[in-house]
Amino acid sequence: MLSPLLFASGLATLLTPSDAAETVLGAYIFHRHGDRSAKSTPPTSLTTLGYQQVYTSGQYYRSRYVNGSSQIKDLSSDSVKLSQLSVTAPVDNVLQSSAMGFLQGLYPPVDTVQTLGNGTKVEAPLNGYQLIPVNTIDAGTGSEDNGWLQDASGCQNAKWSSNKYFESSEYQELLSGTKDFYKKLLPVVKNTFEENDVTFKNAYVVYDLLNVAKIHNSSIPSSEILTDAIFAQTRTLADAHEWGLAYNSSDNMRAVTGMQLAGEILKYMNNTIASGQAGKTSNKLGVQFGAYATFMSFFGLANMPKVNADFMGMPDYASSMVFELFTDSEVKDGEFPASKDLQVRFLFHNGTASASSEPEVYPLFGSSSKSLSWEDFSDGLNKFAILTTEEWCNKCGNKDGPCAAYAETAASTQADNGSKGSGHGMSAAVGGVIGAMITLAVVLGSLAAVMLLGGLRLVPKRVLVRPEVTEKA
């Protein structure tokens, strides 16, 4: 588990921000939603606690980037300038509500009274509540109502890859080795799950139900069974389960959401640089809300477990990771540094960030450096980032919807190449079969290390297992 105290070790001391004078030029935040109701009792909704969590996080990032010592250069500190801020979330009640709550903390109301031409004074509603749009994205739609979060990715090959986890020896051993453990939990969860569903296959949704109950319920059925040690073990098992579904070093296709995030980060920060070098002050702060498996997929792709094995755990509610674009070079008003003078650092905070519990800096891509040059950072992300719809379609093997046009183009190109060749060209159908068989040969990465950690605490959310659960009323 990624506990709030998780990375507060010697590494944190090593990786504190530089004392050297620097200028922050832009940032991109990927944020998890706040506390919500259980997935096993849909539709899910953001709780009052969850609202408070994301609002508090928004206040913290306001104090850091909007009007604090690390203020992003030229970012408006009072009334929002929409050209400087981009906020996105999937079409999902919990994630969109979380984004709105975060924005209320990031840009709170401004007491605005407008005087019209005839002298009439108009007072802004809600003491100047700032209306900031949350743009919707397709990826992750319905994430928090889905027990199987790869359904929210829409990527066929990612679903196939994640399903291969259920055929792995690691999964089979955990499934058989934890039968007695889950059987003991039946009296606690029998009002929601059928007996056959309370197994390691549904490790996440079982844990999620228990976690929500411990936070919100004054009493739990057969509570004497759910000791702290037993609850911790449900988290550990859920963590191993979700890591196996979110990332595999031998078949990174299941980490498609991390690839998409990498592409979004690159595109936004490239726009920050391009607009700055063109003398504009747009694209300063990007904020995206998403589900926990995207964190895990990105952590795997960026080799974060090399820094700390706890990056294999699920991040808690309202967790955030940040990519800061900055320079140590002097920046005069109206100027923007050359690309060679730009650097990027990565920060992560498990749970709600606040003035008393701030994000820590960690090295990316298995390096030991607390910051990377822009070139090294972009090169690192480009190794796995998905940047275009066509690239996503090709990787995912999707051929309908927005991918239909690319599928037709690919088929046409293949036909043309075949007609010009010697007659031994590979057909699209045969190529697809061979490609699938090659993929089938990929060896899944071992999760044994995770399980050896035993009591290692994990954090809540994101089910990537299709929980075939029959819920009771």
UniProtKB/TrEMBL annotation:
GO terms for molecular function: phosphatase activity. Belongs to the histidine acid phosphatase family. InterPro entries: His_Pase_clade-2, His_PPase_superfam, Histidine_acid_phosphatase. It comes from the Eukaryota. Residues 1-20 form the signal peptide. The chain crosses the membrane at residues 429-456. This is Phosphoglycerate mutase-like protein. It comes from Delitschia confertaspora ATCC 74209. Keywords: Membrane, Signal, Transmembrane, Transmembrane helix. Pfam families: His_Phos_2.
